[in-house]
Amino acid sequence: MLLSGGLDSYTTAAIAQAEGFVVFALTVRYGQLHACELDAARRVARALDVARHLELDVDLAAFGGSALTGDGDIPMDQPPDRDGVPSTYVPARNTVLLSLALGWGEALGATDLFIGVNALDYSGYPDCRPEFIAAFARLATLATKTGVEGAGFKVHAPLIRWSKAEIITKGHALGLDYGLTHSCYLPTPDGRSCGRCDSCQLRARGFAQAGLVDPALTAASGGG
Length: 224
Fold this sequence. Notes:
By secondary structure, the chain is mainly α.
């Protein structure tokens, strides 16, 4: 399970557990600007009591090309569902992260990979689309010993066609504490969400449409 500390990956991991999977969580420090996300991933992993939480360092910031790694400005006060690929896209990030999960999964003898991508609310990221998930599953089967010996891999993206409100409603039904999570692209120095970036706007809209209050708004740790 790729665990970022955001509400999507938290919900996905909880769904996996509800379906009977034992969760091994992988968090990648890929050069994102803020440690809030990593702290949230640790909180979420503890709350879920995962079998193991592994953190890896892969510095995609060395490549540049994304506002999330310090190359350019974070978009603020813009419609989050506007056309085009946003500056917060990290080049090939989900391909890299899923490849790492694939490697660990094969070493563990696991053939089910989980990722919390979502394409319905915001389809600006090319590596959040169903076509990408299907293509990666094919690649995983072709590129591994496990795959060529016949076992094959499945990439689970249960949220990919859900709205943010549907995701939040499902998590609420599972008893998740979204106050543990972080989604903001540009948090304040004390870790509170900005309320103005794309991620904050999508999260706020999701909670409003679900008829729920975001606990992260009052949490001392912040959370987008």
